[in-house]
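Morning run. Coffee first, then this:
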Amino acid sequence: MGARISDRIAAIAESATLAVDAKAKALKAAGRPVIGFGAGEPDFPTPDYIVEAAVAACRDPRNHRYTPVAGLPELREAVAVKTRRDTGFEVAASQVLVTNGGKQAVYNAFAALLDPGDEVLLIAPYWTTYPEAIKLAGGVPVEVVTDETTGYLASVDQLAAARTARTKVLLFVSPSNPTGAVYPPAEVEAIGRWAAEHDLWVVTDEIYEHLVYGGAENVSIAHSAGEKVVVLNGVAKTYAMTGWRVGWMIGPADVIKAATNLQSHATSNVNNVAQRAAVAAVSGDLSAVARMRAAFDRRRATIVSMLSDIPGVLCPEPLGAFYAYPSVKGLLGTPLRGKVAQSSAELAGIILDEVEVAVVPGEAFGTPGYLRMSYALGDDDLAEGVGRIAKLVAEG
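And here it is:
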């Protein structure tokens, strides 16, 4: 008898971020005072006007039926208008495919673009889902590793050194999950021009586009990367709508048609009520995100300051998203309450067991020796959680 599970699916790793979040929630449910830095979602409720649009949509029988696979025409148009407003990138509604969250947009994009053996330049640290989606499509992730010395930014020279005759796609993410890195406009333009010169596709994930801080400026690589660009985005992070599951991909007509065909057999259309809520979100102003960004900015200052005060921890300042990505290499091999971690994965386990704080180890993002800590949690919990880690390290 052969294996019960196909090789293709057996090779998929569980989402480490969701696994950490699930463990933290299970411990919380059991009454433990766990503080979770694992989940990549805002801790704010979805704004009222978006919820009200959904309530009204529930009562409209039109939303009790199928819609076109590619999405409600009103939402596709609203996404095109929003894209022009927010990034200056001109797209038609016909170039938009509405997906079940950003993850389906990622999956659709690589499924539509890759043939077996095609290589994708994947800048590490990377979000855990990217390599899995690439491999499911038959592609080969080629890691371009960055570290804290460059603020986790990849250079054109690094990308050029990793490019081969099989390279088909560059995956570009700014602001970055997990590092919070934001590429300066001149570097975005240089990388986009380089990709265009070498006839590469650029898949750009812009889900954190509105979450930038300080003097950082977010510029879409779609302006400099030529015609072969696919933009991934969604309402999840900007409008605190992670659970609503509405994302989208934008690209050339033939790619969108191919991805729509795939989605027609996978999931068909996105939940209609959630789509109506998304229309309200992307058509509204950005005042809700401005309020959230101010809170994130305050927490960002707190977490960087507190982490930087811990001996053995080095934390570059994140300029976007809502993650800190400290190096904890200085804590490896040293006793913490008699336990010694040889890897960041072991360290994350010790932190959870000893002080009931959940963090995601760098192994999940392709770079051991680091932790990802989301600062999308309440100010008090954030200070308490980092304080517990500091105390653990201080005790030795």
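The two ends are 52 Å apart (CA to CA). Good start to the day.
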